[in-house]
Design goal:
The structure is a single chain. This protein has a 5-stranded antiparallel beta sheet with strand order 1-2-5-4-3, covered by helices on one side. It is an alpha+beta fold. A hairpin with a 5-residue loop joins strand 1 and strand 2. The chain is built from 2 helices and 5 strands, in the order βββαββα.
Length: 92
Amino acid sequence: MAVKITVDPTRNEAAIRFLLDREIIPPGTCLSFPSPESAEIFPIAKALFKIKGVLAVGVLGNEIMVTKDEKTRWGSLKPKVIETISSTFNSR
């Protein structure tokens, strides 16, 4: 079954939460990936860092927080993030 993703803006213009319809990691646990090197062991975060403009990734329960650089616009980045999460998650 394909993963359903809902986009949830935050107060920080550089960060958006992508909420999934299922848990990624156990509730109450958090993973933070401040760099591509730190994401090597977590496939979704590793794939997100391959998208130009992604600066950091955080995972908490059923959500993925993506932080972008100031030059990149969410209008072009959001579809790439959603596609990457979908294809990575659905290939598991």
